[in-house]
Write a structure and sequence with these properties.
Blueprint lengths: L1 E8 L6 H17 L4 E3 L14 H7 L6 H13 L2 E8 L6 E7 L5 E6 L23 E6 L2 E7 L8 H9 L4 E5 L6 H14 L2 E5 L13 E3 L15 E4 L5 E8 H10 L19
Parallel strand pairs: 1-2, 2-3, 7-8, 8-9
Antiparallel strand pairs: 1-12, 3-4, 4-5, 6-7, 9-10, 10-11
Helix pairs in contact: 1-3
């Protein structure tokens, strides 16, 4: 099985309505290019440009029954394609940074809210948002077959525990909406998470010149060794430029599954009885 993942590395508009319009057209274009899964950057509903006035922020946030969400559910079924769309979600006491994954039938497979919010003690950080409290991995039905999928959001990737939980839940593919500069160190984090957990990671970022973003959406397939190749291979099978665009990358799921059966990285030789201290406060 091979899946084609579309990265919606586009500049957002100035309203939820405009972003819905841009997003719908982008999904249609992605389907015409052969996409099986469509992935948006972080908080697409408002373009990751949120107010730090709590009353204004609440007005920017939307409920799960909002037309924005309903349209993507309908669109996934219309196009026969999975859609991972992002939003600022209404939540009490504060909104959440959320991704919703719809399968090709328009069924919501999971709603994941960013667990590690960017609370840096700085003006403009995410401390005004509420954090999520649960990881999800679900079977995603695509035209090519079923794959186990989970998500992290941006800053989550800096915590190896996130990826390990997703691995333990059986993730084969991790979808990561993003909104930050993707430079060598952040890209190295993605490469490391993919290597140590033997799963693929697809990350979609905003293009330049969106504030503090530079494109470079990526797909790491997690396959470090292939029997017919000497040494190790580059697990980065796709990296976009900084420019806006709808980019497609192919994930060889069969190759990944064979690799996971043959290799032991991060699984066989674990010593969980010795890891308790990492979960202590």
């Amino acid at each position: 099985m091979k899946l084609r993942i579309a990265f919606i590395q586009l500049l957002p508009g100035d309203s939820i309505e405009k972003n819905l319009e841009i997003g719908v057209e982008a999904c249609k274009e992605a389907k015409n290019k052969g996409a099986d899964i469509v992935l948006f950057p972080e908080m697409w509903s408002i373009g990751y440009q949120f107010s730090h006035d709590i009353k204004k922020l609440q007005r920017q946030a939307i409920n799960m029954d909002d037309p924005y969400i309903k349209r993507y559910s309908e669109l996934a079924e219309e196009l026969d394609v999975a859609i991972a769309v992002t939003l600022l979600e209404k939540h009490e006491p504060k909104p959440r940074n959320t991704i919703c994954l719809f399968d090709r039938h328009g069924v919501l497979k999971y709603r994941y809210s960013k667990i590690h919010i960017c609370d840096f003690g700085e003006e403009g950080d995410e401390s005004i948002l509420d954090a999520g409290d649960e990881f999800f991995v679900e079977n995603l039905d695509t035209r090519e077959g079923v794959i186990r999928v989970g998500s992290m959001i941006c800053y989550d990737r800096e915590f190896p525990e996130c990826a390990r939980v997703l691995m333990q839940k059986g993730a084969e593919l991790v979808l990561v909406p993003n909104a930050c500069p993707m430079e060598i160190n952040r890209l190295s984090q993605l490469r490391g998470r993919s290597f140590e957990n033997m799963f693929a990671i697809a990350t979609c970022n905003y293009p330049a010149p969106h504030p503090d973003c530079n494109g470079h959406s990526t797909l790491f397939d997690g396959v470090v060794y292939i029997s017919e190749m000497p040494g190790s291979r580059d697990t980065c099978v796709f990296e976009a430029s900084e420019k806006a665009g709808i980019y497609l990358a192919e994930l060889d799921v069969d190759q990944l599954r064979i690799y996971r059966k043959q290799e032991v990285w991060g699984v066989k030789n674990r010593r969980p009885e010795l890891y308790g201290s990492i979960s202590e406060k």
